[in-house]
């Protein structure tokens, strides 16, 4: 077993443990940090496997953009974030742990790529890495790719449904009722006879007060 295989198993174990931590910890900040470590570990696994483009895209897109989307979802779920703003000192140990693990993975990955001369692709003579990845993704692994797309779609729908909770005092729209509306439901024609206004009546004079005995 060479260094590349050892690093592969270490990165895979780190990705699995951090993924379990994402769904097991109660603090959303710790879960977000664990998710960052999960993305980074999976990216390292892909880079070792020869898919450098996919690994770099995972770091740039998911860690840089999707994590911002997750933060928006956390804010939309009405989570009490007041305790989270008390200070970053109590989150410092978890942040340092994630940073140290990512640094170790980066140094290990640099050592592995320096020791390996030939590219670790399925077919090194089949052109560039991006072309090989696209060919394998849309031919041999098309079904897992489509299943992953369905899972992500279901996750997005579930996140939207969680944010659409009924709150007292909030106004909601019913698209089905709006599409079934008719003109008679909105406008009512009333026929009224024209009536000539009466002449103004002068105010009655005040009655004289009776003399007191």
Find the count of extended strands (DSSP E, 2+ residues): 0
Describe the biggest sheet?
none
Extract low-pLDDT stretches.
Answer: 117-122
**CATH topology descriptor of the largest domain:** Four Helix Bundle (Hemerythrin (Met), subunit A)
Overall morphology: elongated
Helix content: 55-70%
- Any idea what the CATH architecture of the largest domain is? Up-down Bundle
Describe the structure in your own words.
It is a single chain. The chain folds into two domains: 1-120, Four Helix Bundle (Hemerythrin (Met), subunit A); 122-165. Helix content is 62%, strand content 0%. It is built from eight helices and no strands. Helix 1 (3-24) runs antiparallel to helix 4 (92-115) and helix 2 (28-48) runs parallel beside helix 4 (92-115). The model is unreliable at 117-122 (pLDDT under 50).
Outline:
With 213 residues, the chain is mostly helical. The protein has eight helices and no strands. Mean pLDDT is 75; it is low at 117-122.
Describe this protein with a few key phrases.
213 residues; Four Helix Bundle (Hemerythrin (Met), subunit A); mainly alpha; single chain
How do the helices and strands line up, and which of them pair or pack?
Blueprint: H1 3-24, H2 28-48, H3 52-76, H4 92-115, H5 129-137, H6 142-163, H7 175-179, H8 183-186
Helix pairs in contact: 1-2, 1-4, 2-3, 2-4
